[in-house]
Amino acid sequence: MRVLLLIAMTVVSVAQRPLPKVLILEAVPGRHELEEPDETLRWNPVRFYNRLASARFECVSARALLLGSDPRIRCVLGTWQDVRKITRFVERGGGAAFPAGAVGGEDRLLMDALLGVRPGSPLRVHHEGRLVALDPDHPAARVVDGFTLREGRFISSVPRVALADGARPIIGIGDEVVAWTRAIGKGRVIVSGIELDRLSPAQVLAHQVESIAWAGRVGPFRIAPKSATVLFDGTSTRHWIAEQRGEPCPWKLVDGTLEVSPGKGSIMTRETYGDFQMHVEFRVPEGAGGSGVYLQRRYELQILNTPGRETEPHYCGALFRYRAPDLNATFPVKLWQTYDITFRQPRWKDGKKTKNARITVVHNGLTIHNDVALTRSTSAGKKESPAPMPVLLEDHGFKVQFRNIWIDPLH
Q1: Cβ partners under 8 Å of residue 256, min gap 6
Q2: Do residue 193 and residue 312 come from a single domain?
Q3: Domain count, the chain
């Protein structure tokens, strides 16, 4: 089923911080499509995207909303063919994310003008090849850089000469352009030929979420706020000490990364932390690539080389032996990955726990734990108590690398 994702800008209250809303406008399938026993026709894209990005934006069905029913949404309701209304919406500051299949569709001249392609441009399909980030700084491009098409998957592209003035290519395959962006008035448009469904690999899912976030100007997780403490910036380990003896950090600095020194033991922060938001970037080597991020030395968020597998409570992204991630967002080895963590410690009164710890984890831009209650420490974690404790990075015998680590206490 074709899906048009129309990103609605919102007026955000700092106190309540409501999530930006994404409107999903579905094309009405043709009669022949309705007769096909295709599982995708029963796919609920609203539920799907809310599962992927519930910590970043909220998805709602355009058919369930009336214009003006929510003052926080600035949007124009319409169908796939409402090109003029969509264009006006974008010109006023909205955003839109389109599949490349929209090229040459209904209202061809108007749609191609909105997408930023020259009229009559051919759309080509690829069943093999390797994607290249033409703009490695674009969040939707860097997550799929080097992605190789597998059997049963396909992408669409246009020739470079098909892009109109002002369209900027961000992803390519061979000499063709797979994804591009453009500005229209005050708004943004992104077009991608990377096919998406429920069985898509983590890199493809991350690409789609980052496309939506970029078009809708949803702030990235990876920029440290001014109030944050940068625990590792690529130059110094002064915030870290050895777990066992409290000595200076025994791990190596390698090309601006903090690399596990197998056998030297885990490291932990000098400071202790209660409620916080934390950003960690990591890269696993060939092999198992095991490590972990322990929050308060009690709750382990697993690091492991397990891309493309069914989720398990000991695979990457799991709260170790406590809860499997909602989906496997793991990238292949040698690619940098991200954890964005929001953690609230348990509440205590007179030595008794009154509220469980809670955690939200976004892995490579995809929500894998959404406000999950932690009723106890994970497998090898320290016992729960009212006292805050440090964050720990685990030595599990593999040369896992870390970079760009920051933490921001919540008040």
Answers
A1: 234, 235, 403
A2: no
A3: 2
